[in-house]
Design goal:
By secondary structure, this protein is an alpha/beta fold. 47% of the residues lie in helices and 20% in strands. The protein has three domains: 107 residues, Response regulator (Rossmann fold), CATH 3.40.50.2300; 148 residues, 3-Layer(aba) Sandwich (Rossmann fold), CATH 3.40.50.2300; 173 residues, 2-Layer Sandwich (Alpha-Beta Plaits). It contains 16 helices and 18 strands. Strands 12-13-11-16-17-18 form a six-stranded mixed beta sheet, sandwiched between helices. Strands 2-1-3-4-5 form a five-stranded parallel beta sheet, with helices on both faces. A five-stranded parallel beta sheet has the order 7-6-8-9-10, sandwiched between helices. Helix 9 links the parallel strand 9 and strand 10. Helix 4 runs parallel beside helix 10 and helix 6 packs across helix 10. The longest helix is centred in the middle third of the chain and has 33 residues. It catalyses: 2 GTP = 3',3'-c-di-GMP + 2 diphosphate. Pfam families: GGDEF, Response_reg. This is diguanylate cyclase. GO terms for molecular function: diguanylate cyclase activity.
């Protein structure tokens, strides 16, 4: 997996050494000799990762990292801070200003590459969600919201050593996280199936289980495939840590565990998870807004046409019916009672139609007082019978329009069904043909007196009263 990496260091030899190592792994590399230059290159080039030296003249690495994370243009770029200092307080300071990781010189290149792969993989995922979110905002379907709080986030600690697990739970609880405990793969599977966790902390020192197999299982399970995985290991388990990253782990902490470092790394992972969840929810909400009618909650024309085209693409052209439904004399309702009452009539009719259709039918409001019902698997006679039931049921509605007054409502329905491939191709598409023919039948129904059903190619008109009449178009 290639990526763009920005290396920031004031020592030319360090720059060239890291450049050679990363270029050998086919990464694209750019160099900056100080904090100010790094900020400029990061904004313009948009790297996938920044390797940032701490000890630099002028603007040090901590200040540079804080500026990167404060800038909306660069705050999403992962930062690995690199220093010759092994002081845990320096590492914690780096994590607190927003660094995603902290490596000590001399750098272990296997560790660097493992961290790089993990952070780039995560950034690519978040970039995709960010791009979708920006599209949603550009369409005016959503607005920015403040970052979510980690208080109340759920963390699962998987460890069969009681003392170690209790220490981790105590540390996480100080940041307001709610914790659960699992001692085995079976317990972890049961808990993650029942509870949506925001973080999983897994010890690589399990006595009765293969922790890497458990990590692999967590990544494969649908419930936990996107849940951040933080590993805890002994220094001697370096090879297993690297293997854990290959399996999809997001971060690690070495024993003896520093509570402050554990909490900082856990906070970073949970924030990313909550941010990703929010982007996913925003996108789902925006799609819902884009594909549904806000007044009635029914699907809109855009969704209906795509859905109908999808059904027809499966070869159901001869077993599908389309009902075009229109509220009779709706303009006079608006004129007499006002548009607010007209909206209530639309909502009442929509709810009545929805309550009387099959679960696998699709009902949409396509504009004004017009609705469409798509009935897969329905031939002409079945569609006509269903339309008659809908017409008769709507006729019984009495909608309260205020001051004790009741408004009677009727509908007219046009039906098209049983399309052939030749007809569809000649009409420029089966979906377009079905909708157009149903619309023609609807106009015939309204011209014939309203409150009736007209089926394309249906039986001869029924004699009778003001009840619905089925007419034929040949």
């Amino acid at each position: 997996m290639t990526a763009r990496i920005l290396i920031v260091d004031d020592v030319p030899a360090n720059l060239r050494l890291l450049e050679a190592k990363l270029a050998a792994e086919y990464y694209q590399v750019r160099l900056a000799d100080g904090g100010a230059a790094a900020l400029s290159v990061a904004r313009a080039w948009q790297p996938d990762l920044v390797l940032l030296d701490v000890m630099m003249p002028g603007m040090d690495g901590f200040t540079c990292c804080a500026k990167l994370k404060d800038d909306p243009v660069t705050q999403h770029i992962p930062v690995i801070m690199v220093t010759a200092l092994g002081d845990p307080h320096e590492r914690l300071r780096g994590l607190d200003v927003g660094a995603d990781d902290f490596l000590t010189k001399p750098i272990e290149y296997e560790t660097l590459l493992a961290r790089t792969r993990g952070l780039v993989r995560l950034k690519r995922l978040l970039d995709e969600w960010r791009a979708r979110s920006e599209t949603v905002r550009a369409l005016g379907l959503d607005t920015p919201r403040p970052a979510p709080s980690i208080a109340g986030a759920r963390a699962l600690v998987v460890d069969d050593w009681d003392q170690g697990a209790q220490a981790v739970e105590a540390a996480l609880s100080r940041d307001g996280m709610m914790t659960g405990r699992a001692r085995s793969r079976a317990e972890a599977a049961a808990l993650t199936a029942a509870v949506p966790f925001d973080l999983i902390v897994l010890s690589l020192s399990l006595e009765q289980e293969d922790a890497l197999a458990l990590a692999s299982g967590l990544r494969a399970a649908e419930a936990t495939q996107d849940t951040p995985l933080l590993l805890i290991a002994d220094p001697a388990q370096r090879a297993r840590l690297l293997r854990g990253f290959d399996l999809g782990a997001n971060d690690w902490v070495l024993r003896p565990v520093d509570d402050h470092e554990l909490r900082a790394r856990a906070r970073n992972q949970v924030r990313r998870k909550l941010y990703q969840d929010r982007l996913r929810a925003d996108l789902g909400r925006a799609l819902q807004q884009a594909l549904t009618d806000p007044l009635t909650g029914l699907y809109n024309r855009r969704y209906l046409v795509r859905h109908l085209e999808g059904l027809l693409a499966t070869g159901q052209a001869s077993d599908i019916a389309v009902l075009m439904i229109d509220i009779d004399r709706f303009k006079s309702i608006n004129d007499r009672y006002g548009h607010a009452t007209g909206d209530r009539v639309l909502q009442a009719v929509a709810e009545a139609l929805r309550a009387r259709t099959r679960v696998f039918d699709t009902l949409a409001r396509i504009g004004g007082e017009e609705f469409v019902l798509v009935m897969p698997g329905a031939r002409a006679a079945e569609a006509q019978a269903a339309a008659e039931r809908l017409r008769a049921d709507i006729e019984t509605l009495a909608i309260d329009v205020g001051d004790g007054a009741l408004c009677a409502v009727t509908i007219s329905i046009g039906i098209s069904a049983a399309i052939t491939r030749a007809v569809a191709e000649g009409a420029g598409g089966a979906a377009a043909w079905l909708l157009e023919e149903a619309d023609k039948c609807l106009y015939v129904a309204k011209d014939g007196g309203r409150n009736r059903v007209v089926l394309r190619g249906g039986p001869a008109p029924l004699a009778g009263t003001n009840a619905a009449t089925a007419a034929a178009i040949n």
